Amino acid sequence: MKPVKVGLLGLGTVGGGTVTVLARNAVEISRRAGRGIEISHAAARAYDPDRIQGLDRIGRIGDDAFAIVNDPDVQIVVELIGGYSPARELVLQAIANGKHVVTANKALIATHGNEIFAAARDRGVMVGFEAAVAGGIPIIKALREGLAANHIEWIAGIINGTGNFILTEMRDKQRDFADVLAEAQALGYAEADPTFDIEGIDAAHKLTILSSLAFGVPLRFEHCFTEGIAKVGALDVAYAAELGYRIKHLGITRRSAGGIELRVHPTLIPERRLIANVDGVMNAVLVKGDAVGPTLYYGAGAGALPTASAVVADLVDVVRTLTTDPSNRVPHLAFQPDELADIPSLPMEAVQTAYYLRLSALDQPGVMARIASILADQGISIEAIKQKEPAEGETHVPLVMLTHRVIERQMNTAIAQIEALDSVQGEVTRIRMETLSG
């Protein structure tokens, strides 16, 4: 059987890794796919030939990406240029031309996936996007196929390695956020503009995809609540450890009575949880199904070869099904297209969770009683409290509290009232808490 011809858009980190993996493991890949896979045409404006193995196996390399999606010999287009545009236009044109697509572009899928998948269904082609979430961890396949028998209850994931590296260094070496961020940039873990990573946007793209796969709802990136880690201080990391918790930047999606929760924010989790011990740039996704219980997926969430592993796995899947009736393929979003449910997204103020609160209060009688009264008026009960000794000459003391679960709207009201007290200095630091128990 003739090899399948692939067109590759981008020869950057992941594109170069894809070329390397296809060349290095060509025999094994052919055995799995049932036929060879060849890159007949690639497009890149610039690339480093010294770090890519197998460039000599590519039929031709140019700089015109649209030439590839319009090339009649190309059967599968692999989009690895990233971003929203021209990636969207290229993918839609490839689909219109009847070509299958594989992409690692989480931003594209999270924001334009509904349109792309509808176009693919109309043309009877597949769109593979395993590499769009958690790099080399096969979490998409796990949700679409391995856990298909389950009613998924919730997902919680460390799905951005940059943020996890920063929080790990802050905990292990008692360093400040800004200092660790600078190191992450120097090491290449963070971009010169790290906004997408540290503000949770990258994780929100990935969580949007996971939520759709888990609950059978359309992709709704615009509904995802995001909060970054820039305000997490070394004090909070240390206090959390004293209380038996670790702070992780989690993406959490849960099916609740009021709708689908979709949120990314710093989170205290018990240090005994496996996911609390995922450190450095590694990723992990915890999925709770009603039949299987909690399952954890761990591995490299980025990098040339780990992400290329997922890209090539999608290529193998597409090649295996080239002759399959389109109606018998695994649905893009796990559920049959006409079975996607219009379950509402739950606004953040309606989400229920527990909280870590840190504030600076005047060291005098009655202050704690007033704060406790405000919390009680909002139906908030305190699980634990720590009052630190004041520094010499200071009139205010750090006060740390853990609360039981409460609706966020009530906590917002309580925090506003506490901050208005003359006896409280500055803003209240609030970090949400989850037990992530089975």
UniProtKB/TrEMBL annotation:
Gene3D superfamilies: 3.30.70.260, Dihydrodipicolinate Reductase, domain 2 (3.30.360.10), NAD(P)-binding Rossmann-like Domain (3.40.50.720)
Catalyzed reactions: L-homoserine + NAD(+) = L-aspartate 4-semialdehyde + NADH + H(+)
ACT domain location: 356-433
Pathway named in the protein's UniProt entry: Amino-acid biosynthesis; L-threonine biosynthesis; L-threonine from L-aspartate: step 3/5; Amino-acid biosynthesis; L-methionine biosynthesis via de novo pathway; L-homoserine from L-aspartate: step 3/3
Domain of life: Bacteria
InterPro entries per record: ACT-like_dom_sf, ACT_dom, Asp/hSer_DH_NAD-bd, HDH, HDH_cat, HDH_CS, NAD(P)-bd_dom_sf
Keyword field: Amino-acid biosynthesis, Methionine biosynthesis, NADP, Oxidoreductase, Threonine biosynthesis
NADP as UniProt keyword: yes
Residues bound to NADPH: K106
EC number from the UniProt entry: 1.1.1.3
Binding site for L-homoserine: E191
Entry GO MF terms: homoserine dehydrogenase activity; NADP binding
Pfam families given in the database record: ACT, Homoserine_dh, NAD_binding_3
Active site: K206 (proton donor)
Chain positions recorded as NADP(+) binding sites: L9, G10, L11, G12, T13, V14, G15, G16
Example GO biological process: methionine biosynthetic process
Similarity remark: Belongs to the homoserine dehydrogenase family.
Protein name: Homoserine dehydrogenase
Native organism: Thiocapsa imhoffii
